Amino acid sequence: METAKKLWQNRKEKKEWARRLQSEDPGLEVVHPHAAGIDVGNSAHYVAVRPDRDPQPVRRFECFTADLYRLADWLKSCGVNTVALQSTGVYWIPLYDILEERGFEVYLVNARHTKNLPGRKSDVQESQWLLKLHTYGLLNNSFHPASAIRTLRTYWRQRAAHVEGAATCILRMQKALTQMNLQLANVISDLSGVTGQKIVRAIVAGERDPHELAKLRDARIQASHEEIAKSLEGNWRPELVFVLQQEVDLYDTYQKRIAECDQQIEKHLATFADNRNPVQPPSPKGEIKKKKKSRRKMLRRLISATNSSASRE
């Protein structure tokens, strides 16, 4: 009974908000008087400003870079200083960068926060709805890191994709070995380690003698020479050796790409200014000597002043 009552109250409250927002004067305080709303799309953006700013308050702009700059120019001519746009896929990123570059205060709105609100059906109505909600301060701005952090995040995500690809190559190497009944995984813990990679690459190079392969064992491996040699007795099917060769080459490519990402990350991190603990430059020896002499003079004056006052008493 209590739950049904709450649901009824929520529906009633939602209908009341819909009635107020869709009216000409919803009775709410205007928070952003110079606002605009943008419905982001994959091929075109619909932009809405207040009707008193332009005879055609809703316009359509394509997603080409030149059109995005025209969009920013039009908003400037309309006296807009804050914009609300939905974070749809990745289509909003170029537009966000241009608006931010032009000095607009951009509110990046999560589409889930507005989809349950009443109203808007078409793209035109969607942009007008965003404008109205933003004008009355009813939209929350999503967190968007600074440009330097976004650049670092791009490098890091690319690196993570390469790491995932390299891990997939290791799994495929393991699958090929298992299909050839080479039970190397039962005697070593990691195929991407020193011993695993030496043995796999020797197999690809043409080595088939289990004892010769076992000699590549690293000293830190707990399994004995005999155990490793026993695990490397297989059928050596040529199509699976071919698959193994391809995965090794692909794994090396991923490792190269990871190293390139690491270089870019280090280069970018070097541009970050660390002002938390500024290091004072060391004083020249001459300045240190001057400071010591001035301290000595002060001590002498204090001593003489103390002695003179004591003699007067």
Provide the fold topology.
Layout: H1 2-22, E1 35-39, E2 44-49, E3 58-62, H2 65-77, E4 82-86, H3 92-101, E5 105-109, H4 123-135, H5 147-179, H6 194-205, H7 210-214, H8 225-231, H9 238-269, H10 285-312
Parallel strand pairs: 1-4, 4-5
Antiparallel strand pairs: 1-2, 2-3
Helix pairs in contact: 2-3, 5-9, 6-9
What's a concise summary of this model?
With 313 residues, this protein is of the alpha/beta class. It has helices at residues 2-22, 65-77, 92-101, 123-135, 147-179, 194-205, 210-214, 225-231, 238-269, 285-312, and strands at 35-39, 44-49, 58-62, 82-86, 105-109. It is elongated, with a radius of gyration of 35 Å.
What does this structure look like?
The chain is α/β, with parallel strands linked by helices. It has two domains: 110 residues, Nucleotidyltransferase, domain 5 (2-Layer Sandwich), CATH 3.30.420; 120 residues. The chain contains ten helices and five strands. It has a five-stranded mixed β-sheet. The radius of gyration is 35 Å and the shape is elongated. 20% of the residues are buried. The C terminus is likely disordered.
Q: Based on helices, strands and strand pairing, what is the structural class?
A: alpha/beta
Number of strands: 5
Write down the oligomeric state.
single chain
Helix content range: 55-70%
| Rg (C-alpha, Å) | 35 Å
Average pLDDT figure: 82
